[in-house]
Structure formats: C-alpha cells, structure tokens
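Run log, item B.
One chain of 308 residues. Sequence copied directly from the ordering sheet:
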Amino acid sequence: MASLKKLAKREEKKRKFESGHSLCSGCGLPIAVRTILNSTDGPVVASNATGCLEVATSRFPTSAWNIPWIHNAFENAAATISGAESAYRSMKKKGKIDEDINFLAFAGDGGTYDIGLQSLSGALERGHDFTYVTLDNGAYMNTGIQRSSATPKGASTTTAPAGEEKYGKQEKRKNLTEIVAAHEIPYVGQASISHLQDLADKAEKAIHREGPAFLNVLSTCQLGWRIPPKDAVKVAQKGVDTCFWPLYEVDEGEYNITYEPKEKLPVEEWLEPQKRFAALFKTGNEEVIEEIQEDVDKDWEKLQAKVS
C-alpha cells in the first residue's frame, strides 16, 4: 500500500483536487477527497452529487477539480457514474480508447443513505466497475443541517431539534456499510479522516478492484456538529476510539477490523465535545446515553464476531 509520503509526492506531481475552494475551516470533506484521489496514479473520472462538496468546489468560473468531473442531482451520483463507465467500456471495446480509467462517485449521507440509495443499490447490483464514496457528516448539512437517516440518535438538527419535548433525533442511525456489504460486492470499507493511512489503503484497494467498491468515510462538519474547527480530526478520532465508528473492511466477503483501539473509550467522550448532543447531558436524559452505549457495544460485538 502507498505510504502517506508517497501520496504527498503524487500530490506534488499533479494535484487532482486543488486548494482555493470555499469549504469551511475544519471541514472533513477536502481531507477525505484529496487522500482518496491521491491513492491512484491513473486517470480518474468522478461524479459528484449536489451538496457541500459540489457547491463549494465549483463556483463559476472556478473549479477545485483537476479531473473530468460531473455534477449531478442529489439522488443520482451512482447512476451518472454508471453511465460514464458503461460508455467507456463500449468505446474501449471499439478501440476508441486504450487507457485504463478509474471511475469514482462522491456523495454525502443525505444523497446516499436516503434519496440516492436506490440509485446506488442498482449500480452495485449491475456490477459496474466504479468506487462509490459516501462522505458521512450525519445530516443534510448543505441545505440547513436537516436530519438524515445517517444522523446519530440524540443529535439535534433543524428538523429534529432538541427542546422541552425531545432531546433530538429519537432513532438509531442506519448502518449503510452493512447494507452495501449485503450486496456482496468485491470491496467495502469504512474509514475516517482521523486515520489517513487507513483511508488511503482502503481507497487504493477500492479503486483498483475490478467491479463495484464502496467507501463510507466519517467526515466532520464544524457547523452541524458544533465543534471548533481545530478539533475536527480529534473529534473524528473519538468516534473511532469509542467504536461508534469502527474501521473495518469487507474484502471479497471476508471481514477485517483494520483498527482496534487499545482502550475502547466510553461513548460520552465522542458525544460531549459536539454541541449537537448537548441535550443528552441535561438531567433526565442519562438513560439515552446508556442506550447509545448499549447500541455501540452490541454493534461492536457483532462486528468482532464476523471476523474469521
């Protein structure tokens, strides 16, 4: 696997993703995207669903993308890249193209967990050769921090706000990584911006694997999570060390935990720094934190049991 030093040299050679965009300070998106794109030397074509990443990197007349890049609607990143990949295979078969090209799709959790799930599922079932990347910050951040099915239980959003009647979102988040793994595709990886080498390794595997691959990346949002920009990576690290967001892969059906904390931290250490969970720490909501801890523990035990 490529080391971070090697990835940095690729960055110096030719940047696939430029600086100068308008993403927020402390945003995890550019960290993830640059690391993923640097994980291949080959040419890349990408589709990008409407969202923070698309809006802040493509303000006319500028662009942060140094690759062929397609802006598509909120719900159809997978369908768009499927069409591009199919056209490429047809042209290569006819001898009109002879180089190998990698195809990637980028979308947020709203555009994947919710309104884009059918598009993604269909593309995976058809077996297109592409890598789909979900940049999971746990809400529809670009349109006003609305609740998505990736929003963790207890988080306060504009459509599931904390107040006198409720502490925030009442439901547990959807486990999209396992939903995708159930499609039995060649490669599935769950990663975080706090562990760049792990992310780079998984991106390299995904991009160069024949057939569909999927990456689910924990990506901080300082506005939606209500954290200081300087703490973005530190908070993501807490998500991993509490096992709220375990780092693992499903490689040709085989589960592998790629990072196991030396000491599994209590989930409060992930929740407390984020003001979106502030209501959970008020008197009377102690049981909710206990429920979240129980959910995390059960999911971690299930994951460990899947490792052969």
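Observations after the first pass:
- The chain has a mean pLDDT of 95.
- Residues 146 and 253 are 34 Å apart (CA to CA).
Flagged for discussion on Thursday.
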